[in-house]
Amino acid sequence: MDDKRSVLIVEDEPKIRSGLADFLEFHNFHPTAAQDGLEAKQLVSRHRYDLILLDLMLPKISGEELCCKWRQEGLTTPIIMLTAKGQEREKVAGLNLGADDYITKPFSLEELLARIRAVMRRTDPAKSVGRQFRFGPVAVDLAALKITAAGREQPISPRQGKILQFFAANPGRVISREELYRKVWGESMEEIETRTVDMHIAKLRSIIEANPAEPALIRTVRGAGYVYEANHESV
């Protein structure tokens, strides 16, 4: 069975494109290359990839436009944007459109590899933390759909389990409501879903927090989202 992770490289510069493909193949990935935005769009419509390396400046369809369209269509594949030096505005726009990370050209291949592995870890929490893991002082068992805290067991729903699993794979990182909804629900978030996310977080806090009114494990970061404080042990 082939366990190589598939990566789509969307890059219009032939030397960069072939160099990235050779490097990723050497590191046990399965690369596919597209030379412009239209070819990338067609490939993604036909195949599933584990990660997409997406250049911003592309012929036919720009990287920004592709990223926006894919996220609107509900594509949850992690995306790392490749940007030229000085494209600060484009970087911010790309992250706001749903990219998971970006790296600025020229970049070292070792840095890119580290970014790829980090993004894959945090966007694939099932492989990162497994189905039994610690959430601060709480023991989580997704197979049994239960948590254990202070010697007491409590059932949780599959959705609550996925939320805990995603936070556990991303300790200390601020996660926006949109990202959480996209990764857990598998859909692009509309305005109405903001309340859905908040309600699920509130319910989880009532289960895992010692004082849900002053949460210590899942903290709200005003204007940005939520962050999991992995080292808090007060429950």
Characterise the protein shown here.
This protein has 235 residues and is an alpha/beta fold. The protein contains nine helices and eleven strands. It has a five-stranded parallel β-sheet with strand order 2-1-3-4-5, with helices on both faces. A four-stranded antiparallel β-sheet has the order 6-7-8-9, with helices on one face. Strands 10-11 form a two-stranded antiparallel ribbon. α3 runs parallel beside α4 (88-97) and α8 packs across α9. 32% of the residues are buried. The mean pLDDT is 86.
DSSP summary, beta strand count: 11
If strands are numbered along the chain, what order do they take across the biggest sheet? 2-1-3-4-5
Please give the domain count. Answer: 2
Rg (C-alpha, Å): 19 Å
> Which CATH architecture of the largest domain?
3-Layer(aba) Sandwich
Largest sheet: 5 strands, parallel
**Which percent band covers the strand fraction?**
15-25%
CATH superfamily of the largest domain: Response regulator
Order of helices and strands: EHEHEHEHEHHEEEEHHHEE
CATH topology descriptor of the largest domain: Rossmann fold
Whole-number mean pLDDT: 86
Helix content: 40-55%
Structural shape: elongated
Number of helices: 9
CATH class of the largest domain: Alpha Beta
N-end to C-end Cα span? 43 Å
Q: Enumerate the spans where pLDDT stays under 50 for 5 or more consecutive residues.
A: none
How would you briefly describe this protein structure?
Helices cover 42% and strands 22% of the residues.
Feature tags:
235 residues; alpha/beta; Rossmann fold; Arc Repressor Mutant, subunit A; 2 domains; 5-stranded parallel sheet; 4-stranded antiparallel sheet; 42% helix; 22% strand; elongated
